[in-house]
Design goal:
It is a single chain. The chain has about 325 residues and is an alpha+beta fold. It is globular, with a radius of gyration of 23 Å.
C-alpha cells in the first residue's frame, strides 16, 4: 500500500532536494503535498472512494470523447448510443480545482550542501507566466530552442571547457491551471566549477538572444530533424490520439495544423527563436538550484534576490522553501 511504501521508503538527500525544489517552483498545495502516514490515517477513508469517483467523473456533461478505429461511424453508432449515451448528465463538482499557479516572482537561489556524492548537481530553471503568441507555435519554438541551446552548451561546457560530461535542456508550456512556460538547463560537475559553468551558461543564453545570426547553422539542422521526426510520428496511432486530445484540451482546434507542420517549421527564423528565448528565459525569473557535498573549501556565490510585483515567498522553512503548514493544505 502507499502507506507502507511511505513508511519503508529510503529518504535520500537527492529525493529531499528534488521535493523541496518542486515546492519552490510550484508552490505547495494539495497536488504536490507529501502524503505522510499521519495524513493518510487522518484524511483517507475507504468509504469515501466511490462517492469521490462519482463526484469527479460521474456526470458526463461537456466531456469530449475521441473515438478512433478502422471502421465506419455507422458500424459503431449503436455502441456509442448504448455506452456513452447512457452516462449520467449533470455538472461535475470542480470546487476542488487549483487556482492560479503560485510561482516565485523573483530570482531565487536554492543551495543544499547535503549531497552524499562528490559531484554537484546544478539546474537553472526559468519560469514565465505571461503568455505571448500561439501555444502550438510556441511549442515548436520551444523544441527548436532546447535543441539549439543544448548543442551550444555542449560545445561550450564540454568541448571547450572540459567541465561536464553532458547537458540537459527542456522547454515546455501549459495553460492549466494557469499559463506557465518552464525552461531548464541542468548538468553535473565538480563543486569548484559550479559558479564558472553557471556564468558560461548565462552568457550563452544572452548571446543567443542578442546575436541570433551566429546560431543559424544549428537552426537548419534542427528543422531537418523535426521534419523527419514528424514524418515518422504521423504513422503512429498514439501520436494522433495524443494530438487530438491536446488540441481539444487546450482549446486550439486548428485541424489544419498537422498538414501545415512542415511549413510552420520551415518558416521559423533564428530571430523568432531569439525573441522566444528572450521572453521565456532572459526576461523570466530564474531559480538557481545546486545540490552539492559539504566542503569548507568550496562555495557558491550568492545571487541577488530582487523581489518584484507578484508572488513572493515570505513564509519559509529552514531551507528557504515556502511551507504554509499542514492546516493550510489539508
Amino acid at each position: 500500500s502507499y502507506r507502507e511504501g511511505y513508511l519503508t521508503r529510503e529518504e535520500t538527500p537527492q529525493s529531499r532536494f528534488s521535493r523541496e525544489l518542486n515546492w519552490l517552483m510550484n508552490g505547495r498545495n494539495y497536488t504536490n503535498r507529501e502524503l505522510t502516514d499521519t495524513v493518510i490515517d487522518r484524511l483517507i477513508d475507504q468509504r469515501d472512494m466511490i462517492p469521490l469517483h462519482q463526484r469527479f467523473f460521474g456526470p458526463a456533461t461537456d466531456y469530449t470523447f475521441v473515438i478512433m478505429g478502422d471502421c465506419d461511424l455507422s458500424d459503431i453508432r449503436s455502441y456509442i448510443s448504448t455506452y456513452i449515451g447512457a452516462l449520467p448528465a449533470g455538472v461535475a463538482d470542480t470546487t476542488w480545482q487549483v487556482g492560479r499557479r503560485q510561482i516565485p516572482h523573483r530570482n531565487v537561489e536554492f543551495v543544499s550542501t547535503t549531497y552524499d556524492q562528490p559531484k554537484a548537481v546544478v539546474s537553472l530553471t526559468y519560469q514565465q507566466d505571461q503568455q505571448q503568441g500561439d501555444l502550438q507555435l510556441n511549442e515548436v519554438k520551444g523544441v527548436v530552442l532546447k535543441s539549439i541551446l543544448r548543442t551550444v552548451l555542449l560545445k561550450r561546457l564540454r568541448e571547450e571547457m572540459g567541465k561536464v560530461y553532458s547537458v540537459s535542456t527542456s522547454v515546455a508550456a501549459g495553460q492549466y491551471p494557469s499559463y506557465l512556460c518552464r525552461s531548464t538547463v541542468g548538468f553535473v560537475c565538480q563543486p569548484a566549477d559550479v559558479d564558472t559553468l553557471i556564468a558560461a551558461t548565462r552568457e550563452e543564453i544572452r548571446q543567443l538572444c542578442e546575436q541570433p545570426d551566429q546560431y543559424a547553422i544549428h537552426l537548419d539542422d534542427v528543422k531537418k530533424n523535426l521534419q523527419k521526426e514528424h514524418a515518422l510520428q504521423v504513422q503512429q496511432t498514439a501520436y494522433w490520439t495524443s494530438w487530438i486530445r491536446n488540441v481539444v484540451y487546450n482549446g486550439h482546434e486548428d485541424w489544419t495544423w498537422i498538414n501545415r507542420y512542415n511549413d510552420v517549421v520551415e518558416h521559423i527564423s533564428m530571430q523568432d527563436v531569439a525573441d522566444f528565448a528572450r521572453h521565456v528565459m532572459a526576461d523570466a525569473y530564474e531559480i538557481k538550484a545546486v545540490l552539492m557535498p559539504p566542503s569548507p573549501s568550496t562555495s557558491v556565490s550568492p545571487s541577488p534576490l530582487t523581489p518584484v510585483s507578484g508572488t513572493v515567498f515570505d513564509d519559509r522553512n529552514q531551507n528557504g522553501v515556502q511551507d504554509p503548514g499542514e492546516d493550510a493544505i489539508a
